[in-house]
User: What shape does this take?
Amino acid sequence: MLTRALLALEDGTTFAGTVLGATGETSGEVVFNTSMTGYQEILTDPSYAGQIVAMTYPLIGNYGVNAEDAESAAPQAEGFIVKEASRIASNWRGQMTLADWLTQHGVVGIQGIDTRALTRLLRIKGALKGVISTEELNPARLVRRAQAAPGLLGRDLVQEVTCAAPLTWEPPAGVPTRFQVVAIDCGTKRNIYRMLAQAGCRVTAVPASMTAPELLALRPDGLFLSNGPGDPEGVPYVIETVRQCLGRLPVFGICLGHQILGLALGGKTYKLKFGHHGGNHPVLDVTTRKVEITAQNHGFAVDVASIPNGQVEVTHLNLYDKTVEGMRHTTLPVFSVQYHPEASPGPHDAHYLFQQFLDLMAQRG
Assistant: This one.
């Protein structure tokens, strides 16, 4: 007999299903992800802190989970929603089922609901606060809990996912060390560090609270600004650190790092209606006119027009809604993208951006 579970949204909508993973109760902003695979990488992406992820693909979990595919030490999403979770994990790399893994890490999820109806609702109304519970099954009371749950605007979630002390990633055996990179860890996916290391970078990941003088004292060849969760305006201390580093060394930002860079340059960010979450988003490279299929996970965007004095030019545009997906400074060795060139999961169309960062560091040297 499966344990009953209930999903309640702040607009009063409820969905009844059964538990997937741990029993209990969890809350967060509910967003949908359009990826067909990669659920483990999605759940362990620190950018999902504060959010409950609903998968649009109807069957999730058929290849299980394994230690190698994790993008952080544990699941970071607040909860998980699927139409159907596979009861069988069939893969030579699989180490346990999705349900057992979620239970092991205390993640509350729900299955057996109409995820198409949920996705349509979120597209119409935008991302909504929600609660999944196996304890409170009264719809009205659970809706009130969803309405009382904290939102993302102005909230600092970076402090919940940043490293406690500096960590170092070395190039693999046989790859010479070419550059020293300092990465401000706002919730970095591991594959970003892997790709920088494979390119010959010795990466020192530092806590998001590190000041500019402390960072520059490490004498890096370049500065990397990582992805991460929540509202970029909720981390003014990181924005100030980046502002003080501009013009001192090359800078490359991804996702939240892209938004923080926009704010450090004097611009503004805004919240998207339901965000971009998935592994199949088309992005136009304005320079080459090529279209990249990209992995995305963000709920905020940069208003490039608000950045004063024409300091930046747009390099990439989202072909779904024309939001800015990339920018570069017109005079400084500084650039960023809103999407995830490291993929994991997702296509590899944008791996070239790591080489661009290396080229900027080489020119500086």
Notes: The chain has a mean pLDDT of 97. The longest helix spans residues 352-364. Residues 181 and 203 are 5 Å apart (CA to CA). The domain at 4-148 is CATH 3.50.30.20 (Glucose Oxidase; domain 1).
